[in-house]
């Protein structure tokens, strides 16, 4: 395919646009603007079959322990399974547990949203602060951003993740302790960033009150770890549970979605689960050739392994989806950014690309230059929503026109322009032949957002399975969780440093700055 141009491919296949478009339950994937023929797609599907993808999908849905390095089942799909389904983990049906927690979340959210849940001074809750990081932040933060139009106006919902105190300080600056509810979201309840923020939030609350039930009125937890939640001082009655078979970055549909439920209400959350379930069913049952997540996954493998593409951009043409690139960055890179195979050997091929992106049209005025004329070979996904959630005239046509124009220009370039000075011709040249997928969603609703999330979850699964990696562990993240502990102790002590000369000098410089800041604070008092 190296010599084939998209101009030729489209000329050779008259209805290519339609023939290379697949739709499921309103979600449309047009993959015609890729450097593939129908034969290429057949070969890629053959690769998926040879890699045992269909058996892998079944193993996941059936709750087999496919997360082999942590010896766990991978069952985020059970979080959106309807009441009457049975999904067993070690002989126990987990669907009733899932629905039990959903009901508790819904009942709690109703109390908060209706003002029946009171803060320590008897006032209703006006602000919710979700404290969590990584998988316990990116999902609900992304979905809240996407679904603001469905949110209640009576709650101001905020997300704090960074251990950088500016994040929490800015979030709390204009909030009142007596009307603020903290949702401490942490699967393990041992993550240092989250616990540091949670402790500071607790101090902030208690500084304004000595009510004995202040923490009980203003803190709830989402976790799998009851002991640590209780040790923190949150009543396990105010804890919403999930399970070790839900990975952090796959946890938005679990109790980790509590802040979102508070914002949009339990019914909307259930609609999101239903959308994800629809995509689950499609992924599990549709033939590979018609299977949206599989097609996206195979095209990604095509560029990553056969064209050596290092990066893939996510370009949502919708401001409401502005956090989707960051969310997918974690989903994809943390799942498949691995070099060890499931068989315990070094992976012989390249795995996850670098995922990045920004909403359109903003990106067009920034990095699209490189997409059109740069020297990096890459692919991208355009995501568009057909019907907007506002009624401002003119905007949406312009937005969608830009989306279509960009994918067209990337694919076909611009014919040689012989007007203007000849020496500028080469600068004004657009060669095209740059691949992209276009995903269209009818309207952005909780349901379609659930579909979109599951679409990408399963794309990542398909790729990871074919590459032969375990998409569900994250040893690279675990390392980060322990590395800083030694240095934090050294900063506080004045003892000798035994790192390399660079690290020693950096720590020394920080120690000096810290001492100087301390002196300045004292002098200012
Ligand atoms: C996700 C990762 C990671 C995790 C955070 C937060 O798959 O494992 O991003 O979600 O480190 O972990 P806790 O929820 O345990 O605080």
Task: Give the gist of this structure.
46% of the residues lie in helices and 12% in strands.
Radius of gyration in whole Å, from Cα? 25 Å
> Roughly how much helix do the residues carry, as a percent range?
40-55%
Which parts are unreliable, with pLDDT below 50 for 5 consecutive residues or more? none
N-to-C CA distance: 71 Å
Number of strands: 13
What does it look like?
With 525 residues, this protein is α/β, with parallel strands linked by helices. It has 19 helices and 13 strands. A six-stranded mixed β-sheet has the order 1-2-13-12-10-11, with helices on both faces. A five-stranded parallel β-sheet has the order 6-5-7-8-9, sandwiched between helices. The chain has a two-stranded antiparallel ribbon with strand order 3-4. A hairpin with a 2-residue loop joins strand 1 and strand 2. The radius of gyration is 25 Å and the shape is globular. The mean pLDDT is 96. Bound molecules: glucose-6-phosphate. Residues 133-136, 186-188, 191, 194, 247-249, 334, 474, 477 line the site of glucose-6-phosphate (G6Q).
Tags for this entry?
525 residues; alpha/beta; 6-stranded mixed sheet; 5-stranded parallel sheet; 19 helices; 13 strands; 46% helix; 12% strand; globular; binds glucose-6-phosphate
Task: Tell me the layout of helices and strands.
Layout: H1 6-12, H2 16-19, E1 21-24, E2 27-30, H3 38-50, H4 53-61, E3 88-89, E4 92-93, H5 95-114, E5 127-131, H6 138-146, E6 156-160, H7 165-172, E7 180-185, H8 192-206, H9 214-218, E8 219-223, H10 226-232, E9 239-241, H11 258-264, H12 266-285, H13 292-306, E10 311-317, H14 324-336, E11 354-356, H15 368-373, E12 379-387, H16 395-412, E13 436-443, H17 446-467, H18 475-492, H19 501-524
Parallel strand pairs: 5-6, 5-7, 7-8, 8-9, 10-11, 10-12, 12-13
Antiparallel strand pairs: 1-2, 2-13, 3-4
Bound molecules: glucose-6-phosphate.
């Amino acid at each position: 395919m190296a010599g084939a141009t998209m101009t030729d491919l489209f000329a050779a296949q008259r209805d290519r646009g339609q023939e290379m478009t697949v739709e499921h339950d309103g979600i449309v994937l047009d993959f015609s603007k890729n450097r593939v023929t129908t034969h290429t797609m057949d070969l890629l599907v053959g690769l998926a079959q040879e890699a045992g993808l269909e058996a892998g999908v079944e193993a996941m849905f059936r709750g087999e322990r496919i997360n082999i390095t942590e010896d766990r089942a991978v069952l985020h799909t059970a979080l959106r399974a309807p009441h009457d389904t049975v999904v067993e983990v070690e002989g126990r049906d987990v669907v009733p547990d899932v629905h039990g927690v959903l009901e508790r979340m819904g009942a709690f959210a109703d109390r908060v949203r209706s003002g029946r849940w009171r803060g320590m001074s008897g006032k209703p809750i006006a602000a919710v602060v979700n404290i969590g990081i990584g998988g316990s932040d990116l999902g609900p933060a992304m979905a809240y951003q996407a679904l603001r139009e469905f949110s209640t106006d009576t709650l101001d919902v905020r997300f704090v993740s960074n251990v950088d105190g500016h994040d929490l300080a800015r979030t709390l600056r204009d909030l009142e302790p007596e009307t603020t509810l903290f949702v401490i979201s942490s699967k393990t309840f041992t993550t240092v960033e989250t616990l540091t923020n949670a402790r500071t939030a607790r101090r902030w609350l208690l500084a304004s009150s000595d009510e004995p039930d202040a923490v009980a009125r203003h803190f709830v937890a989402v976790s799998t770890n009851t002991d640590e939640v209780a040790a923190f001082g949150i009543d396990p009655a105010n804890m919403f549970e999930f399970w070790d078979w839900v990975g952090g970055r796959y946890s938005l549909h679990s109790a980790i979605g509590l802040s979102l439920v508070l914002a949009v209400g339990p019914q909307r959350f259930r609609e999101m689960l239903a959308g994800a379930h629809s995509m689950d069913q499609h992924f599990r049952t549709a033939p590979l050739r018609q299977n949206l997540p599989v097609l996206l996954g195979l095209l990604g493998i095509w560029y990553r392994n056969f064209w050596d593409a290092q990066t893939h951009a996510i370009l949502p043409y919708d401001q409401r989806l502005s956090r989707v690139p960051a969310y997918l960055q974690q989903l994809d890179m943390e799942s498949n950014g691995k070099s060890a195979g499931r068989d315990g050997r070094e992976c012989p091929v390249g795995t996850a690309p670098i995922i990045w992106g920004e909403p359109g049209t903003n990106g067009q005025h920034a990095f699209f230059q490189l997409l059109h004329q740069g020297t990096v070979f890459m692919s991208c996904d355009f995501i568009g929503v057909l019907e907007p959630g506002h009624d401002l005239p003119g905007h949406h046509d312009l937005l969608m026109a830009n989306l279509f124009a960009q994918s067209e220009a990337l694919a076909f370039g611009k014919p040689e322009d012989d007007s203007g000075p000849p020496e500028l011709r080469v600068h004004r040249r657009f060669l095209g032949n740059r691949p992209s997928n276009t995903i269209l969603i009818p309207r952005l609703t909780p349901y379609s957002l659930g579909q979109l999330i599951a679409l990408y979850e399963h794309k990542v699964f398909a790729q990871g399975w074919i590459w032969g990696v375990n998409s569900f562990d994250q040893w690279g993240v675990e390392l980060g969780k322990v590395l800083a502990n030694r240095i934090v102790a050294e900063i506080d002590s004045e003892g000798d440093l035994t790192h390399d000369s660079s690290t020693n000098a950096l720590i020394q410089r920080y120690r000096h700055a810290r001492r100087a800041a301390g002196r300045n604070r004292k002098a200012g008092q």
